[in-house]
């Protein structure tokens, strides 16, 4: 109803960065029928990259299947005899990660994954799910959860002394909204991935992109929580929109906006990790498809290895 109001009474040019897989799924057909850009959606579901069937919907961040396939390949290389427990949210978001992870493990998936445990987003807590997973003696844990549940899982694992190799989906890698509330001491050596510069990492102290971000916040959003990666996410995706609007020039039609959004070549933005660029085409609606693995050390993430990409589901 809110999307309908924006389109039919406010007559907006486009709907930018709407959040969440189920809400975006609910408005996707409507916006495509109305030919209104559903631009740079704030969810990494793989299905936003479908220009043939949904030419008015475009993703932004690396898709969930690619991200989880990268974790799977790391496990195959570094712990080939792993007994893996997967916890996932019981919706399109969780299932997308699970599919990419199984695709990444290939024919080893059936023997390596010893349990797939789902939880409902309406649950107040996932403590009992974590207790169950520990009882099965898994030594690798793939944690597909949103920030509130991710913090609960990390705390509970520490409480009951379960210390598997822990992979945490990038959605929940924020120091400010997940790791700090869960406790730094409980989060050591968790592996995740990112494509954005982490504002808590001293490595970027003198970085031009980070300086520009801080100056922007000083001017427009001084009360921002600067340890929260989502603030960097918002700034970077907004720069993506700025690029598209500038490229559209004076021809601000919905069709031209989508045409420019689908013609981005090697766009470098200040908040992206070095080497990660934004690219789209008429047949590729996945603007960012690279990540780098990182491991929690002390109170910050340490990146390791090279920039990785995986075109699962792309």
Describe the structure.
This protein is of the alpha/beta class. The protein has a domain at 64-200 and 292-309: 3-Layer(aba) Sandwich (Rossmann fold). It contains 11 helices and 9 strands. It has a 4-stranded parallel beta sheet with strand order 4-3-5-6, with helices on both faces. Strand 8 (290-297) and strand 9 form a beta hairpin. The longest helix has 20 residues, at 229-248. The model has no long low-confidence stretch (mean pLDDT 96).
Give the termini distance in whole angstroms: 31 Å
Largest β sheet strand count, sense and barrel closure: 4 strands, parallel
What sort of overall outline do the alpha carbons produce when their principal axes are compared? globular
Query: Segments where pLDDT lies below 50 for 5+ residues?
Result: none
What is the CATH class designation of one domain?
Alpha Beta
Q: Would you identify the CATH architecture of one domain?
A: 3-Layer(aba) Sandwich
Q: What is Rg?
A: 20 Å
Q: Could you report the average pLDDT, rounded to the nearest whole number?
A: 96
Number of helices: 11
Strand proportion, as a percent range, falls in 15-25%
List the helices and strands and how they pair.
Blueprint: H1 2-8, E1 15-16, H2 21-34, E2 38-39, H3 64-78, E3 84-89, H4 92-105, H5 109-112, E4 113-119, H6 127-135, E5 140-144, H7 147-159, E6 165-168, H8 175-182, E7 191-194, H9 208-220, H10 229-248, H11 254-261, E8 290-297, E9 300-309
Parallel strand pairs: 1-2, 3-4, 3-5, 5-6
Antiparallel strand pairs: 7-8, 8-9
């Amino acid at each position: 109803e809110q999307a309908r109001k924006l389109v039919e009474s406010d007559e907006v040019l486009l709907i930018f960065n709407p959040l969440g897989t189920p809400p975006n799924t609910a408005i996707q057909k409507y916006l495509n029928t109305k030919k209104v850009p559903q631009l740079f959606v704030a969810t990494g579901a793989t299905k936003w990259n479908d220009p043939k069937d949904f030419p008015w919907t475009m993703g932004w961040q690396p898709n969930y299947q690619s991200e989880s396939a990268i974790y799977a390949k790391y496990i195959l290389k570094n712990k080939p005899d792993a007994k893996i427990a997967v916890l996932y949210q019981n919706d399109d978001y969780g299932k997308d990660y699970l599919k990419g992870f199984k695709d990444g493990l290939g024919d080893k998936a059936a023997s390596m994954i010893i349990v797939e445990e789902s939880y409902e987003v309406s649950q107040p807590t996932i403590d009992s799910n974590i207790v169950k997973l520990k009882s099965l003696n898994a030594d690798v844990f793939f944690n597909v959860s949103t920030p509130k549940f991710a913090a609960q899982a990390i705390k509970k694992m520490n409480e009951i002394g379960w210390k598997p190799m822990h992979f945490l989906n990038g959605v929940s890698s924020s120091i400010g909204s997940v790791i700090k509330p869960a406790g730094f001491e409980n989060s050591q050596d968790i592996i995740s991935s990112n494509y954005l510069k982490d504002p808590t990492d001293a490595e970027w102290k003198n970085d031009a992109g980070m300086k520009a971000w801080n100056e922007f916040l000083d001017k427009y959003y001084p009360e921002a929580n600067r340890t929260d990666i989502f603030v960097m996410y918002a700034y970077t995706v907004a720069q993506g929109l700025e690029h598209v609007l500038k490229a559209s020039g004076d021809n601000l039609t919905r069709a031209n906006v989508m045409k420019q959004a689908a013609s981005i070549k090697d766009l470098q933005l200040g908040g992206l990790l070095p080497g990660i660029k934004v690219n789209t085409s008429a047949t590729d609606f996945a603007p960012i498809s690279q990540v780098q693995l990182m491991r929690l050390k002390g109170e910050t993430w340490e990146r390791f290895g090279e920039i990785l990409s995986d075109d699962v589901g792309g």
